[in-house]
Amino acid sequence: MLMTSDRDAFALIDDTTSVFRIRNGGFDQAVLVTPSALFDQYGVRPTEYRDYAALRGDPSDNLPGVPGFGSATAARLLRRFGSVEAAWTAWDNGDDQSIRDLVGPRAADHFGSGAAREIMQRNRSLMTMHDDLAVPDPETIRLPVRLSVMKAALSARGIILGPSLWALTGGAPPPDGAAASVVPHAWLRRTPRARRQPLPGQLALF
Question: What is 2-127's CATH topology?
């Protein structure tokens, strides 16, 4: 599962890969995008998504698409031909009328132009997600932060961490007194029972 707000990752979806898309509003507004969910929302399969996005353009990345092509028009072309290359092959072989009937004369005129091919090449280049990078062992990419340093820095800001702090620093809970403990003075004056509750404005994770 890939967790991202970048729709370009939809091109990586397959039978074993889904995208948990984070949208404005955080996790409450997040959606899980699978092959079927992608088709239901956009009308294209994952293997067609890059061409779909390149045709339509992406305003969030300031990438204009091919003039005349919106979401519905791009999806219709790809459902019929499967790829932009296949549609261009039909066009170059004289079957431009089927494309005109499918997307309309204005979009078809732009689609057959050299400018459209330049737009597609640029957009594809910028939108393509690389899937050939080596993934390091998670144990080798932990932050090189000592427990005592992390605890002191967070405690000084009113953040008291429990076992999650040990996980962040990649170690087991330290023996009593082994790590520096810096906590707000107001917290120290409270009873042991009251210390389990965070102070006003304080974040506590356990």
Answer: DNA polymerase; domain 1 (1.10.150)
